[in-house]
Amino acid sequence: MLTSVTLALAGEIETFGGTVESSPTKNNPYHSTLSGITFQQAEQLFNPNIKKPTK
């Protein structure tokens, strides 16, 4: 179960030299693939984790 979420905008990722490509899956039509940045850059972009609100 997903209990937290992170968010980075494509423009922020592209600022680091990365790319975002739409790659929908059967269960997630909004899935995207991120490439072209280091783990450390991704970690910086996707922090902090935000606790997912309960429904």
Automatic annotation (TrEMBL):
Protein name (record): Uncharacterized protein
Which species is this record about? Chryseobacterium paridis
